[in-house]
Amino acid sequence: MYVRGLELIDFRSYQRVVVDLEPGVTVFVGPNGIGKTNLIEALGYLATLSSHRVATDAPLIRVGAPRAMIRSTIVNDGRELLAELAIEPGKANRARLGRSALPRVRDLLGALRMVLFAPEDLAIVRGDPGERRRFLDDLLVARRPRLAGVRSDYDRVLKQRNALLRTAYLARRTGGSRDSDLSTLDVWDAHLARHGAQVLAARLELCAALQPHLASAYQLVSAGRSAAGARYVPSTPDPVPAGSSAGGAAAELEAWLTAALLAGRKQEIERGVTLVGPHRDELALSLGDLPVRGYASHGESWSFALALRLASFELLRSDGIEPILVLDDVFAELDTGRRERLARTVGRAEQVLVTCAVDDDVPTTLRGLRYEVLEGEVRRL
Asked: Burial of 245 by CB count in 10 Å (0-12 exposed, 13-18 middle, 19+ buried)?
């Protein structure tokens, strides 16, 4: 898979820009803050329907413009497909694929498979558990786009259940009934357990599949200095049912989650929020016998984050998916040895997009197509 062309209209700093791309390595060179990352952010939005930099769509629209448009020609197994996405804050985004309007924007997922490593990925290693859950779920959807619907269903049920618990909590504080306002809680428990079991089963299977790739990737990046690990930690003290760690039966996990919700109900009622489920689970990252968070140095954290993305890339390839690999301002943070080892690894990808402020930061083994990024302009060198 590779991107043959990218057109942006009123996206970030660009009024309009068209970039022709080719398989192999493409490097975007330009000063910091000039708009290099805006290009790959647009591709990332097409791939995931979210930005790796901001949580809302408003910053993606050029100041003064009503909407932004992303168009990209994607080539997969020799077949070309035009993907289009209109972003308009305050309204539902609109998507087209092959010039046909899609009934749901999430139907665009899977058209472009992409693995992006950016400085923001340090948050996966050093940030709160939500960052690691997002990493897992984005990779899940990249492998199996249909899981976007499962995750959406879970989020919808969780929102409704939290609203019920919150309403009951506030009612009791003002002297209302303790039980009558929770009459539908059993129903929401059943929905949450059913959808949550599917999310949990998929995450457990993903972690088991990712682990060997992570170990190999960190060995490569760090030159064998330590062993990297990633372990899924549920939000309940009870262990996951035996046989579920490698993608076990969702029915068994559903029963397990149902029991966990029942056991934690008193505490949830007292606090007015759902305390059990995949939305509170953790991905525990380790180097040797120590947790990465709180113990790893800046260099180790950076290497671990990079290893997670390289492992994601290798996992997708092992599934028969050839994703685009994007390295956003990565080489400036690496020493010479790490740069060369990374360059030898990523050079096997069908398409690699690299951004940098200094051309010399990119190893000579990744010398390919070059673009100079200027103020609102992208010029081929």
From this structure: middle
Its sign, for the CA torsion 173, 175, 179, 182, is negative
Structure tokens at 222: 């760090």
Phi, psi of 41, rounded to the nearest 5 degrees: -65, -40
Using DSSP's 3-state secondary structure scheme, residue 9 falls into strand
Calculate the dihedral angle through the C-alpha atoms of 137, 143, 147, 149, rounding to the nearest 10 degrees: 100
Q: Is residue 64 part of a domain?
A: yes
- 254 neighbors 248 (Cβ within 8 angstroms): no
Residue that the structure tokens 């820009």 belong to: 17
Whether 249 maps to a domain, the answer reads no
Is residue 299 in a domain?
Answer: no
- For residue 149, being part of any structural domain is answered with no
Query: Per the structure, how many domains does the chain have?
Result: 1
User: Which residue has tokens 């804050």?
Assistant: 89
Token pair of 290 as six digits:
């120590």
User: How does pLDDT run along the chain (381 residues), one tens digit per residue?
Assistant: 999 999 999 999 999 999 999 999 999 999 888 899 999 999 999 999 999 999 888 999 999 899 999 999 999 888 999 999 999 988 889 999 988 899 999 999 999 999 999 988 999 999 999 999 999 999 999 999 999 999 999 999 999 999 999 988 888 777 665 555 777 899 999 999 999 999 999 999 999 999 999 999 998 888 767 789 999 998 887 777 765 554 457 888 999 999 999 999 889 988 999 999 999 999 999 998 899 988 888 888 988 999 999 999 999 999 998 999 999 988 877 778 778 888 888 878 899 999 988 888 888 888 788 999 998 889 998
Write out the residue range of the structural domain in which residue 341 sits. Answer: 1-113+324-381
Read off the CATH number of the domain in which 356 is found.
3.40.50.300
